[in-house]
Amino acid sequence: MASENTAGASTPKSRRNDVVAAEKEQFGGMKFGSAFFGWLTAIGLTVILSALATAIGVGIGASNTSNANDAANQATENVQTISIVSGIVLAIILFVAYYCGGYVAGRMARFDGVKQGIAVWLWGIIIAIVLAILAAVAGNQFNVLSSIKGAPSIPVDGSALTAGGLIGLAIAILIPLVGAILGGKAGMRFHRKVDQVGINHQAGI
């Protein structure tokens, strides 16, 4: 019986690949349910990390400023540097948040980590579009993602039609995609380790 189950597979890893291929054929594909929970993880972590970054920035600004005049002069001189640093911090926050979101989706779905990461990103885009349409129809107060720093959102007032706005929009769209895909692959990799342990046990290794 054991020889029949391992026919065509000469090593534990190749046997695992055969089993995974059969399971993936039946249970693989993009899972929007898992991806939704991944997106919730990503958006929640975006809020937490953004608030933390803001608190750190305010604390640093307060400790480096002696009076109101110094604050005004320093803000004028360093506005470009602050913008660059803010963009870098935003990119890091989005990458980490969507990496974790992709990881959650990949762990839940078990297969096709890249697809799960893309699905997490798609949830963000879909919800941003829906809220932008709702804001255009019922009022900008319904575009709730715009109040979350770093959350992918679509401005309905044309504020993104500037060089800085387009760069910010590109960061908010591309960085989450890369992070979610890498996170989805990492989440899926955990299950391959579990599968290998099962195959090794079955083979008596």
From TrEMBL:
Keywords: Membrane, Transmembrane, Transmembrane helix. The lineage of its organism: Bacteria, Bacillati, Actinomycetota, Actinomycetes, Micrococcales. The chain crosses the membrane at residues 36-62, 82-106, 118-139, 159-183. It comes from the Bacteria. This is Major facilitator superfamily (MFS) profile domain-containing protein.
